[in-house]
Structure formats: structure tokens, C-alpha cells
Amino acid sequence: MRFSGRFVRVFQWIAPAVLPVMLFYGRLLFGGPPGWFLVFGVILGPILTIALYIPPVLTAFDREARALKSTRMAYNIASWVAWAAVLGLAFTLVDVGDRGDSGGSVLTAWGMAQDLNETLFIAFGIIMIGGWIAAIVCAVIGIVVGRRAMLAPAAPLPQHPFAPRAPVADPYAPKPPSTPGPPPPPPGFS
């Protein structure tokens, strides 16, 4: 699983730039019809790119993961889920043309029913948002866990001079009779 963490550590900086391009423009490579999302991609692409860069920026503050040059397993899973869902969105994104009729998606161009395509689009959208939120939560948890692990145990704080203190046993006080005293001195000592 260490390889997965190292791959995600590198790909998390590439995916936010590549996936929006794939979502809005790469669908043409697979036979999706052109439509207005080619234009909206210019506006929505940077917004999606910034949103997808939030989890990687947060993982940069995870000291433990940075020291291992990897990412945490929960973050890896959440990232993979979000990235796969964006690819699913690319294949199910229904684009409309100037005529107002549904231009379809890549999967409808391949023969999938429009109703099933729309259901998959909604499911991929929910999964993508959930994976993105989970990646942010896992990154923040990694920051907290990493900082706690890297901190040395703190020295006890000095007590205020007038604060009540626990009674201190007098080392020179006579011992009660029920407890045995110190062992007798060895022979030759007096």
C-alpha cells in the first residue's frame, strides 16, 4: 500500500489540472457530442480545478506523511473515489446544443438509455462530492494526527506560587510502627 500512497502524493498535483479538461473537453475524444459545455468549461473548469486542489494543499501540512513521502490510506481511498467519479461524470455529462434538444453524453452516443445515463450522472456527482469532502476531512485528520505524533511530550507547566498543593511527605518524619524501617546496616558499619 506504500506505492499507492506515493502515487497519490504525485498524482494529487496532476489530477486537478487534468480531470476538469477531461470532464469538459476530453469527452469529445470518446465520441461525445459537442455542445455548450465546451464554452462553460472555460468558466467552470478553473472553479473545479481550485476545488480539487484544496485536499492536496492540506496534505502538504501533514508532517508525518510528508516525512514518509506518501499519503495516508484513508486519503488515498477518498482521492481515488473522487477522481473516478469525475471520470464517470465525463462519460455521463449530457450536453445540449443550440437546437435545445439533448445532445447526449458519451454513453448515450454508445447506445445507453437517456434515463439510465441521467441516473448515473447524479450518482457520480454525489459520489464525487462525497469523495472530495472525505478527502478534505482525511487531510485535516492527517494534519492533526501528524502534529500530535511529532510533538514531544510537553513539560509540566509551572504551578502558581499561591495555588493549593498536595501535601508533601516529610522524608525525615518517623515511620509509623506498622511499616518496617530501613534494613539494618551491614556488619562493620556503625
Key structural traits:
single chain; 190 residues; mainly alpha; 6 helices; 0% strand
In short:
This protein is mostly helical and 190 residues long. The protein has helices at residues 2-24, 37-59, 63-68, 73-92, 106-109, 114-150.
Number of helices: 6
Shape, per Cα inertia axes: rod-shaped
Measured as a percent range, the helix fraction is: 55-70%
**Assembly of the depicted chains:** single chain
How many beta-strand runs? 0
Tally of individual domains: 1
What Rg, in angstroms, do the CA atoms define?
A: 31 Å
Give the N-to-C terminal Cα separation: 69 Å
Helix and strand element order: HHHHHH
Characterization of this structure:
- The protein is mainly alpha-helical and 190 residues long.
- The chain has one domain (2-148).
- The protein has six helices and no strands.
- The chain has helices at residues 2-24, 37-59, 63-68, 73-92, 106-109, 114-150.
- Helix 1 packs antiparallel against helix 2 (37-59), helix 1 packs parallel to helix 4 and helix 2 runs parallel beside helix 6 (114-150).
- The longest helix is centred in the C-terminal third of the chain and has 37 residues, at 114-150.
- The protein is rod-shaped, with a radius of gyration of 31 Å.
- The N and C termini lie far apart (69 Å).
- The model has no long low-confidence stretch (mean pLDDT 79).
